[in-house]
């Protein structure tokens, strides 16, 4: 899997574009800048945007070629988000240290998903928010990106269970049109969540 992502991100173009995810962008703009953690951040579009807004950014991805692209974009935009090559299995941040953990198209198999979501909750400060956008199972019929394994797509029931210890403020299934580079382009069936740590 790592080889697949290294190869994809090694392309000259930014395969998911350089603009931030719209849902993340709209929510961060409403918030006072603080500390944000961005797991699986790919080519850094979201990390760079958060840094431009004044957030203290910790981002990571397990692809080394993704990090190289993220660093290139950060340099072009004259910001310095902290970006590491790391796997969700081993990555740790201090407990209660982040104002936001943003999971943007961070899809995992079941056991790893539960681990990733538990870590995200642990990293959040009380009052901190999870901002999540991912594909729901209807996405399997579309050609606009996402895993082709339905078990890696997220339902309301999955997210309700994973984040049951948080106050869920938004949990919605919706259809959208993605324009996030050549691998996220077209009609998409997505799920969005905002949840706050008590």
From TrEMBL:
From what superkingdom does this record's organism come? Bacteria
Q: Which InterPro entries match?
A: Methyltransf_25 (IPR041698), SAM-dependent_MTases_sf (IPR029063)
Which Gene3D superfamilies is this protein grouped with? Answer: Vaccinia Virus protein VP39
Question: Start and end of every Methyltransferase domain?
Answer: 42-128
Q: Which UniProt keywords apply?
A: Methyltransferase, Transferase
Q: Does the keyword Transferase apply?
A: yes
Q: Which Pfam families match?
A: Methyltransf_25 (PF13649)
**Example GO BP:** methylation
Q: Which GO terms describe its molecular function?
A: methyltransferase activity
PANTHER family, alphabetized: PUTATIVE (AFU_ORTHOLOGUE AFUA_2G14390)-RELATED, TRANS-ACONITATE 2-METHYLTRANSFERASE-RELATED
Q: What is this protein called?
A: Methyltransferase domain-containing protein
Q: What is the lineage of its organism?
A: Bacteria, Pseudomonadati, Bacteroidota, Cytophagia, Cytophagales
